[in-house]
Amino acid sequence: MKKLLFTAAILLCAALVFTACTGNSSNAKTEQLAKDETYTCTMHNEVMSDKPGKCPKCEMNLVKQKMTAEQMKMMKEGTYTKPKE
């Protein structure tokens, strides 16, 4: 009986660990940003945001536009630059 309870406890702990590790909020944010229009710098297309702001490289206002293929690639790779808040 003790062996059965011990095995059940181990399986329950393993299930909790695996379900807790599957959440990836940054991936959800990337997918949402990639679907919608985005704000980018006209001089630095690697600067992307889901809201208006300033470019951290040149301080220009970010402009609204559709994502380009190059920007979508940067989003997937995680190589885009976040603007100043």
**What's the gyration radius in Å?**
21 Å
Would you list the SSEs in sequence order as H and E?
HHEEEH
* Secondary structural class: mainly alpha
The low-pLDDT segments are: none
Which whole number gives the mean pLDDT? 75
Record field, number of beta strands: 3
Give the termini separation: 59 Å
Give the helix level as a range of percent: 40-55%
* Continuous helix count: 3
Q: How many strands, which pairing sense, and closed or not: the largest β-sheet?
A: 3 strands, antiparallel
Spatial ordering of strands, largest sheet: 2-1-3
- Which geometry do the CA atoms define? rod-shaped
Strand proportion, as a percent range, falls in 5-15%
Secondary-structure map:
Blueprint: H1 2-20, H2 25-35, E1 38-40, E2 48-49, E3 63-65, H3 69-77
Antiparallel strand pairs: 1-2, 1-3
Describe this structure in words.
- It is a single chain.
- The chain is mainly α.
- The protein has a domain at 38-78.
- It is 46% helix and 9% strand.
- The chain contains 3 helices and 3 strands.
- The chain has helices spanning 2-20, 25-35, 69-77; strands at 38-40, 48-49, 63-65.
- The chain has a 3-stranded antiparallel β-sheet, with no helix packed on it.
- The longest helix has 19 residues, at 2-20.
- It is rod-shaped and about 70 Å long.
